[in-house]
Amino acid sequence: MIDIFYTSFTEPLPTTLYSELLSLLPKDLQERNERFLRWQDKHANLFGKLLLMEALKYHNINNNLSKLILYSEHKRPFLTLPSYDFNISHSGAYAICAIGQNVRIGIDIEKKQDRDFENFDKTMNSKQWEHISSSENPIETFYKYWTIKESVSKADGRGFYIPYEELEVKDKTVQYEGKLWFLSDIDIAEDYSVTIATNKLSSYKLHKLDFTAATTTLLANKI
C-alpha cells in the first residue's frame, strides 16, 4: 500500500503561521526554503516537506528530516531507512507526497494549462506527438504523457538524464533499460494531471491535509 498525502493553497499564509510551520523543519531545510523568491515556491516547498513529515508520522517513523534524508548523485532525495521510499511533487496550488515500503516510487502533479508544444519537442516521440495532436483534448493528453514520463524518471532516480522520447507507454506500464514501471492515475482535481510510477503493482490511499487547521497538532508533535 502506498500512502499519498496532499494539500492545496491559493494564497499566502499569515506571516506568523508561516513562520510557525517553517520552524518545524531542520535549519538546513529552512535556509533552503528561504532561497526561493516567490511566495508560491516557498509555500510549495514547505508543504512538500510537511507532507513528508506527516507521512513518516503516519508510519510511526521519527520525522526528523535532517537525519533521514540523503541525496543521490542525481540529486534525488531518499530516506536512510532502507525499506522505505518517498517522492514529492508540486504544481500550481497543490503539493503531494507519496510514501511506501519495499517499493520504488515516483510521483508527478502538473496543472493543465496552454503550452507551446515546440518547447517540448524532444520529450515525446513521433507516435506520441501524433496521439497528442489528434486527440480531442491535446492539452490533457500532453500532460498525461508528461506526468508519466516525469514520474518514471523520478522513480528511476535520474530525472532529465533519461531521454524522455525513449519512454514508451503500453498498457499502463513503461519499460526502460530492462525495468518495468507500473502507472496509476491519481484523481485530485479536474484541472490537474497526476501520475504515480512504481516498480511493482501497488494500491494507494489518499490523505488530504489542511495545514492551516493542523498547526496545533503539528507543533505539538515537533521533534
Give the overall average pLDDT: 92
pLDDT below 50 for ≥5 consecutive residues: which ranges? none
- CATH level 3 topology of the largest domain: Ribosomal Protein L22, Chain A
**Helix share, percent:** 25-40%
CATH homologous superfamily assignment of the largest domain? 4'-phosphopantetheinyl transferase domain
The CATH C-level class name of the largest domain: Alpha Beta
How many domain modules?
2
Strand line-up across the major sheet: 6-10-9-8-7
- Tell the overall outline: globular
Q: Please state the second-level CATH architecture of the largest domain.
A: Alpha-Beta Complex
Task: Classify the beta-strand content into a percent band.
Answer: 25-35%
Query: Sheet with the most strands?
Result: 5 strands, antiparallel
Query: Structural class given helices, strands, pairing?
Result: alpha+beta
| Alpha carbon gap, first and last residue | 26 Å
Cα-atom radius of gyration? 18 Å
GO biological process, one term: lysine biosynthetic process via aminoadipic acid
Pfam families: AASDHPPT_N, ACPS
Keywords: Transferase
Protein name: 4'-phosphopantetheinyl transferase
Provide keyphrases for this structure.
Ribosomal Protein L22, Chain A, four-stranded mixed sheet, globular, holo-[acyl-carrier-protein] synthase activity, 4-PPantetheinyl_Trfase_dom, 4-PPantetheinyl_Trfase_dom_sf, 4'-phosphopantetheinyl transferase
